[in-house]
Amino acid sequence: MNFNGLSLDQAPPIQAPLRFFLTAPLFGIFAGILILLSDKSLLMNRYSVESIAITHTITIGFFSFVMLGALTQMLPVLAGVKMRYVEITSKFSHISLVIGLVLMVVGLLKSMPSLLHVASAMFFFGFLAMGVMIALAIKDVKNFTATVKNMALSLAFMFIILFMGIYMLEEYSFLNISESHIIIANIHSVWAIFGFAGLLIIGVSFQILPMFYVAPRFKKFCKKRVAGLIVFGLFLWAILNFFQTPYDVVAKIWIALFFWAFATTVWKKLDERKRAVSDITIWYWRGASVFLTIGSFFWVFDDYFEHRYTVLVALFIGGGFIFSIVMGMLYKIIPFLVWFHLNAKGYMSIPTINEMINKKLSKLQFALFILSLVGFVVSFFLPVLVDFFAVTFVLSMVILEFNIVAPVRLYLKTIKTKPDFDMSAFS
Amino acid sequence: MNSIKEYLTNGHRECDELFATMENSAMNNLCDAKEAYKKFVSETEKHFQQEERVMFVEFEAKTGMVQGPTAMMRQEHTQMRNLMQQMGEAIDNDNKDKFFGLTETLMILLQQHNMKEEQMLYTMAQQHLSADAPRIVEMMDSMIVSE
To answer: Who's near A68: CB < 8 A, 6+ residues apart?
Structure first.
């Protein structure tokens, strides 16, 4: 049995998750600026290069970055295994993905195929490096819990959507869009949302909600069966989408029902939690639960409106559900990491994690984010409002970056001083 | 209850409940939380000592791993004792912000610690010490907590 995760000193170096976390809001700002600069009529079409560029700035630059960063920290705790070469891998992967994403956005918006080739290669190596190392770590897990199972399934979806994404990017770079492009794009996006992000979030919530909020544990059925049933639905949906498109709504209902059930369960668990204390992370969980419910139903009913509202589905599920959860995680993980690493280095008189982030600013950030999200939904019908809500969104991302940089600055300032205790004997 | 893993895991859940009770009573008035705080600290201390004075000792004797996971768990117990002491000081000074800052920090540290124990150490202890499990559980159950 591997005990690496038990050791304070063998926890991943703080830079490994932080480099992903601190970059994420910067891509959020970048996405907001892209919205401001875009031709608004093109944003309503999910297949326009503008929409694709902005979506990926958020999905790769924000969602994937936070999820990859969090996995470096969560694997030792939730799965009892450590990623090998975590520092060098995260550094390599981070640089590759940043470069890849910037090149993809510029390549798409300026129609520069050569940049798209390089972007494809960067995504391939960037995701593969982290993905393989995470997979190797998961291979070592002895106690294969429901959370670990979800992590593994989520990772499998990450590899599949990566290859689909690269295939489509190469089609753009060769200006050779095949007939199957739209079907692959559909599968790519649905598997990314429900397979890669959705399964990971569900798996992590099995542990996080009972742990941090002393909420009731999830039922055995949820832990043991739901992931498999969702995966079945995702494959069924993909097959129907390819061969029997008119019937794919059956699989959609199947998937949507499980995610709606998850959203309801989260809400109920939070209601029944023993810790009455409420903080910004609870607000984000609640928000995610509401938006996931609305989004799941919209996704199903969108079929009856000839997919006219797919952009709204993306806003509800991508923006309201995934975005909310990952931001909530940032507010929880970063101050704890700072406290944990400083404490392990022997600093005892440090601020508590509640004191590291200004509560008023985090509430303002939450309010601006929700306002922007609702505003984007309204802007779908009144495009003239998009710019205003793009500004509020950028503001929320600027405040988020400020909020999460604050504990990191404290960390950097503190390690320049002498520790209260010399902990070198423990290393 | 003859399983070491089950016995100690239940201990974690009891401490979680006491933690929540303490925090909830502190929300209105910090002074009201004094009793709940004492209960939480005493139950947590009992759990720590059940591990440090019984289970860890048996585990180390059986596996020969003295500087391994048990040493790390002891170190984390020290960190948590330190936080609990500071919580007591915050109650004495009627400093609510400090108290809730400390409880939040303790909560995450505690849960991370519990998870490592439940998922790895207890599982391993149960495997190595299964023959002696009823005796070890009995020893932990009847142990008198030292000051």
So the answer is: A20, A90, A93, A130
Residue A312 tokens, joined: 């709204």
A77 in contact with B at a CB cutoff of 8 Å? yes
> What single string gives the DSSP state of each residue in A274-292?
S-----HHHHHHHHHHHHH
The set of residues, in sequence order, having a beta carbon less than 8 Å from that of A64 and lying 6+ positions away, is A97, A127
B112: distance to nearest CA of chain A, Å? Answer: 6
Q: Which residues of B touch A212 (CB under 8 A)?
A: 107-108, 111
Query: Which residues does A175 contact at the CB level (< 8 Å), separation at least 6?
Result: A113
Which of B101, B111, B123 is facing A353, going by the closest CB pair? B101
Global confidence as pTM? 0.89
Q: Which residue of B has its CA nearest to A3?
A: B69
Task: Find the closest chain B residue to A208 by CA distance.
Answer: B111
Domains, chain B, in order of start with CATH, read: 4-142 (1.20.120)
In tens digits, chain B (147 residues) has pLDDT values of 568 999 999 999 999 999 999 999 999 889 889 999 999 999 999 999 999 999 999 999 998 888 788 998 998 899 899 999 999 999 999 999 899 999 988 998 898 899 888 878 898 888 899 888 999 999 999 988 876
Q: Which tokens belong to A47? A: 């297949």
B100: which chain A residues are within 8 Å (Cβ-Cβ)? 277, 354
**Residue A96 structure tokens:** 């590759």
Give me the interface pTM, i.e. the ipTM.
0.78
